[in-house]
Amino acid sequence: MTVIVRDLRPDVPADTEGFARVRRLALPYILFTPESVRHMAVHVHPDARYRPLVAEEDGEVIGTAQVHLVPDGPEPGQGCLNVYVRPDRTGRGAGRLLVRVAEEYLAEQGATRLFAWALDAAPNRAFAERRGYRRGRCARFLRLDLANGTLPPPPEIPPGVELRTGADFADDPRPLFELDAETMRDEPSDVSNEFTNYEAWLAETWRHPLLDRELTTVAVVDGRPAAFTVAYTDGGTRYSTAMTGTARAHRGRGLAKLAKVHGLHRARAAGVTEAFTGNDTGNGPMIAINKWLGYEECAAEVRYVRDLG
User: Fold this and answer.
1) DSSP code of 204?
2) Strands (E), 120-185
């Protein structure tokens, strides 16, 4: 049995289904569907040089890699590779081959510093460290049981604040782009990333197939979005928070907390039974909100860094 690594074919259903299956098995805390895999492959901005890879054994996809540059970052030469192998197909060399192809490709594209997430488990950490990656910041995956758990009651909406949905901005989503860009700059991360291209944001984010505009909740003050929580759903009963943030001028008022708890109540009413989110360990305010909501840690991951050259 021979393992090969090749490019994902986004228009071949077996490839996108196989990619999504590997990610669901290896990383069940993040939503992936064949449609979202294809969307990323087709609509990521060209400057990212995005290259999704699959490892294949006897015609079966057993490993995946998302490989790209950081196109909007203020620091040039940043590259990312996220490699995952089916838990029941490890030990066959798929991960090693995916990393090698990804690193060679990023080096050809001018990357000088590589970032990679790895699950915070001994085999995953050892795999990264054997290849010269050093440990960076840590993040937690959190799960909330909406079917059997108890949500805090939604607080009253303060005077001067209005709650809307993402769908309310369908005719002009630019205010949400501006809020997303501002909050992204302040998100704890090892990778410097910014949103500067509205058209790219529309293609990648606003038209993402997992984005649930009806369940995305926006706190509006004086007619402008002041805080939001962005909802992804998989078409079934699973929900994920893609982003939660507040504009700098409105922080300290509990608006992100307000948007998130109201959004979760609406999600449960819509039939969602399981909600996921993630926290950088340095994001104290969001950790406190998620603890108040009843989220429980289900896994952790570590950002690893390697300098080339």
Assistant:
1) I
2) 134-145, 161-165
Q: State pLDDT tens for residues 134-190.
A: 999 999 999 999 999 889 998 899 999 999 999 999 999 999 999 999 998 877 666
Phi-psi region of 121 (alpha: psi -120 to 50; beta: other; left: phi over 0): beta
Helix/strand/coil percentages in the chain, nearest 5: 35, 30, 35
Question: Which residues, listed in sequence order, are joined to residue 113 by a DSSP beta bridge?
Answer: 78, 307
Query: Within a 13 Å sphere around the CA of 69, how many CA atoms are in the beta-carbon half?
Result: 21
Residue position matching structure tokens 């050259």:
309
Q: What is the pTM of this model?
A: 0.92
Task: From 78, 19, 16, select the one nearest 47 (Cα to Cα).
Answer: 78
DSSP code, position 109: T
- Token pair 């429980």 is at which residue? 296
Which string of b and e fits 13-49 if b means at least 16 CB within 10 Å? eebbebbbbbbbebbebebbbbebbbbbbebbbeebb
pLDDT-derived band at 192 (thresholds 50, 70, 90) equals low
**Is-contact 215 165, C-beta < 8 A?**
yes
pLDDT-derived band at 75 (thresholds 50, 70, 90) equals confident
Q: Residues 193, 134: contact at Cβ < 8 Å?
A: no
**Domains 3-111 and 144-299 alike in fold:** yes
Does domain 3-111 fall into CATH 3.40.630.30?
yes
Helix (H, G, I), strand (E, B) or coil at 27: coil
CATH number for the domain formed by residue range(s) 144-299: 3.40.630.30
CA atoms within 13 A on the CB side of 243: 24
**Overall average pLDDT of the 6-19 stretch:** 98
User: What are the domain boundaries of the chain?
Assistant: 3-111, 144-299
The pair of three-digit structure tokens given for residue 22, joined into one six-digit string:
């590997």
